[in-house]
Amino acid sequence: MNAILSVAGLGKTYDSGLTALDHVDLDINKGEIFALLGPNGAGKTTLISIICGIVTPTAGTVTVAGHDAIRDYRAARSMIGLVPQEMAADMFVTVQAAVRFSRRLFGKGPNEAHIEEVLKDLSLWDKRKSQIRELSGGMKRRVLIAKALAHEPDILFLDEPTAGVDVELRRDMWKLVHKLRDKGTTIILTTHYIEEAEEMADRVGVINKGQLLIVEEKTALMKKLGKRQMLITLQDPADAVPPGLDDWQLELADDGTKLRYVFDAQAEHTGIPSLLRKLAELGIGFKDLETSKSSLEDIFVDLVHTPKEQAA
Questions:
Q1: What is the model's pTM?
Q2: Element (H, E) at 67
Q3: What residues contact residue 148 under an 8 Å CB cut-off, 6+ apart?
Q4: H helices of 127-285, where?
Q5: What digits encode the pLDDT tens for the residues 59-100?
Q6: Structural domains in the chain?
């Protein structure tokens, strides 16, 4: 696939000495949904702000469909729609007026059919004549998305799009994101909700302390780094892991009623057969075995606590 957005050697160090981004390289393919995960302060918003021209980098380049985001700012920015975390609109204008104004800001001529389509897609059409101040928090979040889509951008950034919204609205937004992707829009979202990335993303990037730890196709990432765990329900609860089982690095779980064994399902030898034989040798009875795979959340937690060179 062709990259519509390329970031090379991007860095940002503030006057205070804080390094928010440290040599970030990233290519985003046209028409994909890319999720950028990271804890608070990891550099997610700084990265988006640089790409959107809000923050000036101290190193590196950003190219949007061949346009240098610094030297050819207007052309690059016209291709981008940004949905920020915070509401940035006149609370006393109507929804329809706010969306029309956003379109004019990018030099686009009137297109009432497009405005109507965006408002209907976001369930805002019935609220088009309402002032923004009259809307609920969830509806205001929809207005932010409508404003970002007003000038028909090729790339849409969603910075924590569903933070603080209810589950129903979150699901509606997921549907909208897929609909936009089907139309060819490239979607880049930052999120704290791991299930959001797991539900929507084609690829996932994990950033921490200004460094991009890994970028991988979602299912490949889960296959590559995902672990499986086996829970062994004991016949009799234990106060500690029974002696003689040190080779498997077991943990007690559920108040001593279970042993947890984490293993690599891709490995040639998982250690499970030898573990079960050892339990029999030691006379440790068990009632049940249960296995499950890691979620994207498990992988994320592992990555942000792993040094970059190990993660790579």
A1: 0.74
A2: strand 67-68
A3: 81, 82, 83, 102, 156, 157
A4: 137-149, 167-182, 194-200, 218-225, 272-281
A5: 999 999 999 998 898 899 999 999 887 776 688 999 999 999
A6: 3-223 (3.40.50.300), 227-293 (3.30.70.1560)
